[in-house]
Design brief:
Number of helices: 9
Number of strands: 10
Structural class: alpha+beta
Oligomer: single chain
Helix content: 40-55%
Distance between the termini: 9 Å
Largest sheet: 5 strands, antiparallel
Radius of gyration: 19 Å
CATH class of the largest domain: Alpha Beta
Shape: globular
CATH topology of the largest domain: Aminoglycoside 3'-phosphotransferase, Chain: A, domain 2
Strand content: 5-15%
Strand order of the largest sheet: 1-2-3-5-4
CATH superfamily of the largest domain: Aminoglycoside phosphotransferase (APH), C-terminal lobe
Number of domains: 2
Length: 294
């Protein structure tokens, strides 16, 4: 991460914090990636979204508050009028979690089951779009060859069409939208959900696919652990005929995310190219042993 990127984000944070009467003088960065996360004194986390994400940021806060009202453990928004929009960037404020560890599949499955059993909220959350931001990421890509970019765009078109012809799945519900272990944290009081940027109405199978991909694509989750996740949730998405389309869509998201990170972090370029080579059939069959970026 360049010092210029950090300095620019910090300057923006100062204006955002001042808008709600807070100081950013002692702020420390948590992660500057697709969204910028900063820690303020008083155990406050500020999440600065990309430009044009005001509606999504407002939805995140509304969803978190609604989940807490329905006794689903979730990260808590700060009791301020939010989001705050400065220079076209929407920011939200959250209570920092107490000491915690990343959630595992056994923590995530019960939370997803509870989430999927909820009634639909009274406020609009939008419909699932599994391909959101992918075309934008590719248009901005600077770290991959042009022929690979063209192939990824063609793959996006193929999967978009395949998505419209999925077989009948489970009834649509409120879904998290990005339900992997990093968006579940385990505190002394139990597991909680966080990051509701992609929460929407859609196929609950999409939430289950992230864990399936950890076993199927990454190879980071053993089959024994994956079957434990299925038992805890009550369903195995891999048995559904539509799963390969969801898996391939998830893989495409993960490839283009790595490409996006590599634009600003050259150390991610090797992993981005490796992921791309995998889905292009250049690296043999799954699992491929992908490693984290960003």
């Amino acid at each position: 991460m360049t010092s210029t990127r950090t300095a620019d984000s910090f300057a923006l944070l100062g204006k955002i914090a001042a808008a709600v009467g807070l100081s950013s003088a002692e702020a420390t960065p948590i992660r500057l990636a697709e969204n910028d996360l900063w820690r303020l004194p008083g155990r406050i986390v500020v999440r600065i979204a990309r430009a044009g994400q005001q509606q999504a940021a407002a939805r995140e806060v509304a969803v978190a508050r609604w989940l807490l009202q329905h006794d689903v453990p979730a990260v808590r928004p700060l009791a301020v009028d939010q989001p705050v929009v400065v220079q076209g960037r929407a920011a939200t404020f959250w209570e920092e979690l107490p000491p915690h560890t990343p959630g595992r599949e056994t923590h995530l499955a019960p939370l997803l089951r509870r989430l999927h059993e909820l009634p639909r909220p009274s406020f609009p959350v939008g419909a699932l779009n599994p391909f959101v931001r992918i075309r934008d990421r590719l248009s901005e890509a600077t770290s991959i060859p042009e022929q690979d970019r063209a192939w990824l765009l063609e793959r996006l078109s193929e999967l978009t069409e395949a998505w419209t012809n999925l077989p009948q799945g489970r009834p649509h519900t409120l879904i998290h939208g990005d339900a992997w272990g990093g968006n579940c944290a385990v505190t002394a009081n139990g597991a909680v959900l966080l990051d509701f940027e992609r929460t929407s109405l859609g196929l609950p199978e999409w939430d289950l696919t992230s864990t399936a991909v950890a076993a199927d694509t990454f190879g980071s989750l053993s089959r024994k652990s994956y079957h434990g996740f299925c038992r805890a949730y009550g369903h195995d998405v891999m048995t559904w005929p539509g799963y390969p389309v969801l898996r391939d869509a998830r893989e495409l998201r993960l490839v283009t995310f790595a490409v996006q990170v590599a634009n600003h972090a050259p150390e991610a370029a090797e992993q981005a190219q490796y992921r791309l080579d995998c889905i292009r059939g250049r690296r043999g069959p799954r699992p491929w042993g992908w490693t984290a970026v960003g």
